[in-house]
Amino acid sequence: MIIAIDGPAASGKGTLGKRLAHHYGYRHLDTGVIYRAVAKALLDRGFDLTDEARAVAIAMELDPENFGHPELKSQRIGDAASVVSAIPRVREALVNFQRQFAADPPGAVLDGRDIGTVICPNADVKIFVVADPQVRAHRRTLEALARGEAADEAMVLADILKRDERDKNRAAAPLKAAEDAHILDNSNLDVEASVSAAIAIVEAVRAAR
Ligand code: CDP
Ligand code: CDP
Fold first, then answer.
1. How far is it, in rounded angstroms, from Cα 92 to Cα 68?
2. What is the β-pairing status of strands 182-185 and 125-130?
3. How large is the average pLDDT for residues 53-81?
4. Ligand 2 atom 21: the closest Cα is on which residue?
5. How far apart are CA 143 and CA 166, in angstroms?
6. For 75-104, what is each residue's pLDDT tens digit?
7. Whose CA is nearest to atom 3 of ligand 1?
8. Ligand 1 center from residue 136 Cα (angstroms)
9. What is the ipTM of this complex?
10. Concatenated DSSP letters for 114-183?
11. What kind of fold does domain 2-199 have according to CATH?
12. What is the mean pLDDT of residues 125-152?
């Protein structure tokens, strides 16, 4: 069983993916972390984010052990990730790792931008999570404040909108819902209600088999 979750920035994909994986006893991969790790490695070494050869080399030697680094969650790295992730060869270098993760038993939940369209087009269940931009900006601001970082909600919103535009309009694996994805708008749902709605989608798909 493979569950694909896609959606724009701060829509709640990661939180939902983690909770669904826990509910079903599956493994979970937040694929955004992979692009964030490539971006961070480039910045740490003083390379340009559009340096294709270096970005591809870094993507090919990524160590999943580093995916838990707290700095990866920052806005700066998220923004840099959306620049690096637009390079087709960087994306290609990361496909096998993601597909292998998805295929291993007993099942997996992957969240990102192109899981249902490119990485796992045959996923058993596809969920495309959306929420109003203002709601998403508010959630990210609360998270930053909880981490003790300064955060201006209007700036967070501008950053989210800019990143969504870049992700939607790139040529390689743009952010979009797969035709067979179930749209889940959680603008007015708390985490528990959002998880329940997603479980209902998964159960409906299972029952229909
Ligand atoms: O992975 P993505 O960037 O899409 O979102 P996230 O990292 O899961 O962050 C979403 C934030 O919104 C978290 O702080 C959640 O607690 C909160 N949230 C949510 O995920 N789902 C809701 N229905 C409501 C709030
Ligand atoms: O958590 P949030 O939604 O803010 O960002 P993320 O999921 O960690 O993704 C960071 C950036 O990586 C996105 O803006 C995308 O440009 C890129 N990304 C991607 O291109 N494909 C994926 N499957 C996941 C992330």
1. 23
2. parallel
3. 93
4. 113
5. 23
6. 899 999 999 999 999 999 999 999 999 999
7. 10
8. 8
9. 0.97
10. SIIIII-TT-SEEEEEE--HHHHHHHHHHHHHHTT----HHHHHHHHHHHHHHHHH-SSS-S---TTPEE
11. Rossmann fold (3.40.50)
12. 94
